[in-house]
């Protein structure tokens, strides 16, 4: 019990540097470092140079660049895992993702971006038209992951796609945003004020004419008070099934200051798992940067599939490190404690992720 309390304390001090945490600690936006205006995927020149100089215990030697020529940039994102499941009493290896990115700066106002995952066989591809709308707005057209809630880099959070039963006999599923999820459609984003943004998208994630499109919106407010950076926002999504549509409502927020960050989100779901069933998913992540290239990470996830049966839920506590010995290499050891109810014994797990990116 004493060890468990100590782990909780470590967790609380731990996790302030997940991918959106970089933005909140620095007081910036995801688009400051990424080709994609809503964050993720290929890094732009500023993001590549910042990561090259600030994300490794060791510095790069010589000149490195992601540019193929003046207008074309490329990137990659490979992830592999070593897994141990206490419940299964087994250890094994797992190939997670193998993403290849290509971005084209046609001119200052027109960009193309594509991603292909050679492991899973899915892709994103879209064009971005900048400075075409008022309030620094843009139009995104193509196949993309819609902008909903906090886009943390760990899809096993129940606010994203969940862990899918990989480390357990139970299929403790999260929401719809699992790896490979995308919609084909149109996305608009406006920034009427410097600290306020509004995103809206309409898209189809299945076969055309089989069901109606989905509609997703997001409002985000990210003010800064000296070096104290704040994030507050909400998202709404109406997604279509063949019979009954389901709806998701997210409320999220966080803060970052110096080496610390906190991100939290709660999502209310209607008809997602079953018709006439309300659900709730929750995530809180803490991070602390010990030094450049060495972060302590923790997160707690919580999911109630049916609010009428709120004495039955899934939950896990994750404690780990985020270590970059070199700017383009990351090691992520994690211990995962399952805290579900009804409680089952001996079902914790260990994960060591190898992440190579460029």
Write up what this structure looks like.
With 358 residues, the chain is mainly beta. It has one domain: Porin (Beta Barrel). It is built from three helices and 17 strands. The protein has a 16-stranded antiparallel beta barrel. The longest helix is centred in the first third of the chain and has 13 residues, at 2-14. Residues 1-18 have low confidence and may be disordered.
CATH 4th-level superfamily: Porin
Which radius of gyration do the C-alpha atoms yield? 20 Å
Sequence of secondary-structure elements = HHHEEEEEEEEEEEEEEEEE
Class by alpha and beta content:
mainly beta
CATH class: Mainly Beta
Q: Give the tally of β-strands.
A: 17
Mean pLDDT across residues = 85
Q: What's the domain count?
A: 1
Oligomeric state, counting identical vs distinct chains: single chain
Fraction of residues in H or I helices = under 10%
């Amino acid at each position: 019990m004493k060890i468990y309390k100590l782990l909780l304390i470590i967790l609380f001090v731990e996790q302030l540097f997940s991918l959106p945490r970089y933005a909140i600690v620095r007081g910036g936006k995801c688009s400051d470092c990424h080709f994609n205006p809503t964050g993720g995927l290929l890094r732009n020149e500023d993001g590549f140079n910042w990561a090259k100089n600030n994300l490794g215990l060791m510095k790069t030697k010589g000149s490195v660049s992601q540019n193929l020529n003046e207008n074309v940039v490329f990137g990659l994102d490979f992830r592999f895992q070593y897994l141990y499941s206490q419940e299964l009493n087994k250890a094994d290896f797992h190939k997670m993702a193998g993403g290849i990115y290509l971005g084209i700066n046609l001119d200052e106002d027109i960009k193309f971006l594509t991603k292909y995952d050679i492991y899973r066989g899915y892709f994103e591809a879209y064009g971005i038209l900048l400075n075409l709308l008022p309030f620094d707005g843009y139009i995104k057209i193509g196949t993309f992951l819609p902008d909903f809630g906090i886009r943390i880099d760990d899809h096993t959070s129940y606010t994203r796609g969940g862990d899918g039963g990989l480390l357990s006999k139970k299929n403790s599923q999260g929401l719809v945003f699992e790896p490979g999820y995308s919609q084909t459609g149109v996305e608009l984003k406006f920034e009427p004020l410097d600290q306020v943004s509004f995103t809206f998208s309409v898209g189809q994630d299945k076969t055309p004419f089989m069901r109606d499109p989905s509609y997703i919106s997001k409002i985000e407010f990210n003010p800064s008070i000296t070096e104290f950076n704040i994030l507050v926002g909400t998202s709404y999504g109406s997604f279509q099934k063949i019979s009954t549509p389901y709806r998701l409502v997210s409320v999220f927020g966080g803060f970052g200051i110096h080496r610390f960050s906190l991100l939290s989100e709660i999502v209310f779901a209607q008809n997602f798992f079953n018709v006439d069933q309300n659900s709730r998913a929750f995530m809180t992540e803490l991070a602390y940067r010990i030094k450049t290239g060495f972060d302590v990470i923790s997160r707690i996830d919580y999911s109630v599939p049916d609010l009428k049966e709120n004495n039955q839920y899934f939950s896990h506590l994750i404690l780990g490190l985020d270590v970059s010995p070199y700017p383009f290499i990351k090691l992520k050891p994690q211990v995962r404690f399952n805290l579900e109810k009804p409680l089952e014994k001996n079902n914790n797990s260990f994960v060591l992720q190898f992440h190579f990116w460029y």
